[in-house]
Specification:
Layout: H1 2-8, H2 10-35, H3 38-47, E1 53-57, H4 62-73, E2 78-88, E3 92-95, E4 98-99, E5 104-108, H5 111-114, E6 118-121, H6 124-128, E7 134-138, H7 139-145, E8 152-157, E9 160-171, E10 182-186, E11 196-203, H8 209-219, E12 226-230, H9 231-238, H10 240-274, H11 276-284, H12 289-327, H13 339-361, H14 371-374, H15 391-394, H16 397-407, H17 409-438, H18 443-446, E13 454-458, H19 464-472, E14 477-491, E15 501-507, E16 519-520, E17 528-532, H20 533-539, E18 546-551, E19 555-565, E20 574-578, H21 579-584, E21 593-598, H22 604-615, E22 619-623, H23 629-668, H24 670-678, H25 683-720, H26 735-756, H27 765-770
Length: about 775
């Protein structure tokens, strides 16, 4: 029975097997990724004895930072405080004349802080033997810029270039991404280089960074003269890329499963037609309905089970590839178990599929032995009205296709649903890639920097005038703006707040920046502020409300909210204020950026190279589109890596489903196709009718799905980016790419139809006459 069942249904069984295996593969891989992210990071933090939290003081003097540290030592939940001396690298940092992007700092090695870090190359002895011109770099920098032990990196200082030879590569939980602060370890900071102290807090066993912050603020009226980054927040930030990829895989897997269940439902319904005589014969042999139902269920249970198991096993390879990219900066091979995600997917898929099959096959109870003569088709005939229309059109390939749509609506609906879901998924991927690929060009919107051509970051405020004179006297410059993009303000702490700090953009006059807002306007006076949409959401603030902030953690001001904008910068915790806010409140303030607008934008690259020679080590010069590229890469790179293979899988499954539906249509219409051949139609004529049939439904699906994705895409992305508090998600659609994607889908469907229509060659007129 088993061998016979498979022999007669090998194509159907193979298609079901392939579909279920792909669904299981994607779903198991996504669940595996999502549940495998947290534990390795926590274990790694424990292994490296990572700080419970890091505090970046607002004060730049050692005396005030030490006083802040002494306040922390009074906390009952704190074990100890460590001080780390650092220099924030705002200068140009290069390797082989290529700029190293990221938020990096030179940090003096300290055994009590970095003594347990994980070394990929080198060890503790390497660090203890460091010379003044040697360094240990984090793995994230090594992987990003392909820097190896023995290579040299260069820092361009006003006093001259400083070189460091790489002696080792290490990893630690706070050093996993260049889009957050990472430490390049050295023996001692050079003389004359700006240096500051950071605090590393080590809590008692079981104490979290949030608990330390809450205890400190409770004892100090909610105020803290610094920004705290907790271990748990750092772990969450490290998981962003993995969560994005896992969520995409899971969403596509669920959609595929839903569509596949519709296809399976259709397959089994057609099975009832083709196997009616076989079932009737079994009953004449003495089998009852329960025996027959049991045989069929066992057969399909075996197929579905093996498919799910193989899909789950194969998912380990995919999930491990994804996880290895997430954990590569950890410097460890992290493998995951397929048992739990595989068991979850097995239970869901098998239960769902067997339930569908059972519901349909239970109708075998209605099959009577007499059906062995005529199957489950109605033997009675109904007289049809004579047709008075155009017979030539009615019996052309397109006429046959139209009649098939009208007479078998269920089949048409199944193809329509499959096509719409496939087209929706593929267009979603194409649009996402287009947006991702243009994000750097549009970083004025996504980050909040003004849309200039070139940006110069001043490394030492005392050189600000010197650099400004160079810019002012350059005939290629149309105009320039002064700004500060590296300062912060804080809000009054309330219990439950995750962050009180806001990254702050400071300009003299926002009318020249033309920075976009989604509500209201940019600030114009010292009494106004525009806040990020995430801050507005967290604090339940809107335009016209007031917000209390602190400059440097101490100078309190009450500002009118005039606008709300969106940004990835600072994870959405950002604001915009005017320079007059600092000047009117007698607060020490320095510009650190020049935004340059060129008369001829085509000269940008030459201008940058020329300005590097003129400015030297007094400023870090970059194209505006490359500003804070490490932040943009954190958002863009996971999408660029995950979306193409997922789109390919969606197209593959869509093609397989169309193949299955056409095969089953040919099987169920075997008699009709035989009649067509009897009256003179060729196999190619019938194949063309299938092509018209699928093509018409595919075009209708495109007409439905494309406007649907254009309308729904911004709303879907707003939901996906809720962690940044996005209210709007503007999209400039590339209709040429959308058209190409839909043409590709149409071609894939046509190819699937052509391949599956080969079965029409087996339609034999002699078999019809014999029957």
């Amino acid at each position: 029975m088993w061998i016979k069942n498979f022999r007669h249904k090998k194509l159907q069984a193979s298609l079901m097997f392939l579909i279920m295996m792909l669904c299981s593969l994607l779903m198991s891989a996504s669940i595996s990724i999502l549940i495998s992210l947290n534990t390795p990071f926590k274990e790694f933090a424990k292994e490296c004895n990572s700080a419970t939290a890091i505090v970046y003081p607002y004060s730049k003097t050692d005396k005030e930072v030490t006083a802040l540290g002494e306040q922390f030592t009074k906390l009952s939940k704190l074990e100890r405080v460590e001080y780390s001396r650092v220099h924030y690298i705002t200068e140009e940092l290069t390797f082989n004349d290529k700029k190293i992007e990221g938020f990096l700092k030179l940090t003096e090695y300290k055994e009590s802080v970095f003594g347990n870090v994980h070394f990929l190359q080198g060890d503790k002895n390497t660090v203890s033997e460091l010379k003044d011109d040697e360094c240990i770099i984090p793995a994230c920098v090594s992987n990003q810029d392909n820097i190896k032990v023995g290579d040299k990196i260069k820092i361009k200082l006003p006093t001259g270039d400083v070189f460091y030879k790489v002696k080792g590569i290490y990893s630690e939980i706070y050093e996993m991404l260049t889009s957050y602060d990472s430490d390049i370890l050295i023996k001692k900071l050079p003389e004359g280089m700006n240096n500051y102290l950071n605090l590393k807090l080590y809590g008692r066993a079981g104490v979290t960074g949030a608990e330390l912050e809450e205890e400190y603020r409770d004892k100090n009226d909610g105020q803290m003269s610094g920004m705290m980054v907790t271990l748990e927040d750092t772990i969450n930030n490290n998981q962003i890329a993995g969560n994005v990829i896992g969520a995409v895989f899971l969403a596509i897997g669920v959609i595929m499963l839903v569509v596949s269940c519709i296809i399976i439902n259709f397959m089994i319904q057609n099975l009832m037609i083709t196997d009616a005589k076989v079932i009737a014969i079994y009953k004449t042999m003495g089998y009852n309905s329960s025996d027959i139902l049991s045989m069929y269920l066992k057969f399909y249970f075996l197929i579905t089970s093996v498919a799910c198991i193989l899909g789950g096993v194969a998912s380990a390879s995919i999930s491990n590839i994804i996880l290895s990219s997430v954990f590569k900066n950890m410097g460890k091979v992290v493998t995951n178990s397929v048992v739990i995600p595989g068991a979850i997917c097995y239970a869901i898929i098998v239960t769902l599929v067997i339930s569908i099959i059972y519901r349909i096959l239970s109708k075998t109870k209605k099959v009577k032995p007499v059906y062995a003569l005529n199957g489950m088709t109605n033997s009675s005939t109904k007289k049809k009205k004579s047709y008075k229309g155009n017979l030539k059109l009615q019996f052309s390939a397109i006429g046959i296709a139209l009649r098939g749509v009208i007479r078998n609506r269920k089949n048409a609906i199944v193809i329509l649903i499959t096509s719409i879901v496939t087209i929706f998924g593929i267009n979603f991927g194409v649009i996402s890639l287009d947006v991702a690929n243009t994000m750097k060009d549009n970083n004025d919107y996504w980050l909040g920097v003004d849309k200039c051509d070139v940006m110069i970051n001043i490394t030492d405020s005392s050189n600000n005038g010197k650099v400004e004179d160079i810019i002012k006297n350059d005939s290629r410059v149309d105009y320039y703006l002064n700004s500060n993009i590296a300062t912060e303000v804080t809000m009054k702490w309330r219990k439950g707040m995750k962050s009180t700090a806001m990254k702050t953009f400071v300009y003299d006059d926002y009318s020249q920046t033309k920075l976009p807002v989604i509500e209201g306007r940019n600030p114009e006076t010292s009494e106004e502020i525009a806040i990020g949409s995430k801050v507005a959401k967290d604090l339940n603030k809107t335009v016209g409300d007031y917000i209390e902030i602190f400059l440097g953690g101490e100078k309190r001001v009450n500002l009118l909210i005039t606008g709300i904008f969106q940004t990835y910068y600072g994870m959405g915790d950002s604001c915009r204020v005017t320079t007059s806010l600092y000047k009117d409140n007698m607060y020490d303030f320095h510009y650190n950026y020049f935004s340059i607008y060129l008369k001829d934008k085509k000269q940008r690259d030459y201008f940058i190279e020329d300005m590097k020679k003129k400015v030297g080590g007094n400023g870090n010069i970059t194209a505006r589109t490359e500003a804070f590229s490490s932040i943009m890469d954190m958002i863009v790179t996971p999408q660029q890596g995950a979306i193409p293979p997922v789109v390919a899988l969606v197209l593959l499954v869509g093609g397989i489903n169309i193949f299955s539906i056409v095969i089953l249509r040919n099987t169920s219409n075997e008699k009709t196709n035989g009649i067509y051949k009897c009256i003179g139609y060729s196999t190619w004529h019938l194949i063309c009718s299938n092509l018209f049939y699928v093509g018409m439904l595919a075009i209708i699906s495109i007409i439905i799905a494309v406007p649907m994705i254009i309308i729904l895409y911004p709303n879907i992305m707003k939901l996906c980016l809720s962690m940044f508090g996005f209210i709007k998600y503007p999209v400039t659609y590339n209709y040429f790419h959308i058209a190409l994607a839909n043409i590709a889908v149409l071609i894939a469907f046509i190819i699937s139809t052509l391949i599956s229509s080969r079965s029409l060659k087996k339609v034999n007129v002699r078999d019809l006459v014999q029957e």
